[in-house]
Amino acid sequence: MTRGGGGFRGRSLPRRPLYNHRPMSDAVRSIPHPGPHPHPRSARPRPAWLRALGREDPPTRVTVAASAYLREHIYKHDSFAATALYHDPANPSHRIVCKFGRRQRVLGLPMAWLGEWLARRERAAMMRLSGITAVPRGLGRPEAAGLDPRLATAHAWVEGRPLFRNERVGDAFFPTLGQLIQQVHSRHAAYVDLNKRENILVGPDGLPRLIDFQLLFAASPGLAIGGDPITLWLMRQLQAADRYHLAKHWHRHRPDQVPQPLRDLDRLRPTVVRIWRRCTAPTRLGRRRLLVAMGVRHGTGLPDTEANPEEGVLLDRANPSPPHPPQTAHPYALYP
Question: Domain range spanning residue 243?
């Protein structure tokens, strides 16, 4: 499963909780779900040029490996990609996730090259990480009428939901996430996008899963022996950034459990993170101000002020301070 987005033109199915499709218990039903927008003014929907597929939504029917799937829900539709959940009509419990890269022009300039590049990166990343159980299995290119398959990728659905803000996870969660990051690094790669909490899912067993691999940085296995020193330095820096973001989440969610080597965040913060923050902070602020000026967002311009924020943002807003689960309880006894 991938992180979500909701409320788009042309959707035929009502909104419902998506991160666990099994029947909910009474305890689960008592947890609030995304409600009306909390801001005093209504934001405008994104204009076509700020949507990967323009005015269109992901196709209602796709074919993957000669099997047909029907669209069940749209998780997210931002400037870079549109992501949707699909199911096999003959076996509704068999689900896949398809991501469709950008093809909408900007100021008349073609942008399909960007969608193709990101889709190709994600397909290659899932192939490199195949066999890691907490990583979704790549399924190649989905095909659909009017769709360029080079701009799309599909993977098996992963059961789980995003790690909530301020959530106290079980004792095994972060040690397991640390082992998962080590497995990624052992494939001569860096995950790169661990800063985003929405990319970390909490599975039905209370253990982590990872999604969204289009930013994964990979190098050839022989790099450490005689490769390009600049590429080698960058890979080591990005792997250090993975460890830093792991420690940061660990501090926020289980400060009582942080191991000694990960306690000093300033020491762990690598050069590439410091440079990235200095370079992107003005750009991020300018982008937020632009979206506010356009009426797409309000206030400080945070993502949850949009008319249709992604599903993970909505769920996080509806569950700002989840209760601390007993260590012996099944996590879905408390969470949707």
Answer: 26-323
